[in-house]
Input
Amino acid sequence: MIQPWKSEEQRYEYPLQPTDLVIDAGCYEGDFAAGMDARYGCQIIALEPVPQFFQNCVHRFSLRPNIRMLNYALFNHDGPMKMGLSNNSSGINSTGANIDVEGIRFATLLQHHVYGQVSLLKLNIEGAEFPVLADIVESGLMPRIDRLQVQWHGIENFQREYGMLRDKILRTHTHVWGENPLFWESYELKR
Output
């Protein structure tokens, strides 16, 4: 049975150990990474493509050797890409000034930066969760993710795209909490 969304605190409640790896894609100001570090002291790879947000997080976590910052946008291809930046919001569908950022596929991230299982993949990537998760599914890499936490963002044909992608995720993962797809949802690898 899918548990309802309770509160922001629920996003931090996972059975993690200091040796577990959390990937925080869409780190922004680093609050999620900081929260997971404070609770579990786990290993964290945090991705933030926007240079100013990235630099702020590098400074914020400079004394935390278990948190590694990478200046990338998790996406469905490697290499240069454009994203919109408007005030404190950014993303592939964001209006505002276009900025050049570096994209990285999940497969490439695993190949170069991850050794072993991903205990938690958190996605808050402003609409890019659709192409990213589709790429992860198509690459056969979903079983490398123990837990997935995703904030879905409205895109064109949202219900259809969400439904098709969710069906693919449910082949390998169980929907644990979050009943409204426009809020946070959490999935866990079937054992």
Notes: The CA atoms of residues 3 and 81 lie 37 Å apart. The longest helix spans residues 158-169. The first strand starts at residue 21 and ends at 25. The domain at 21-189 is CATH 3.40.50.150 (Rossmann fold).
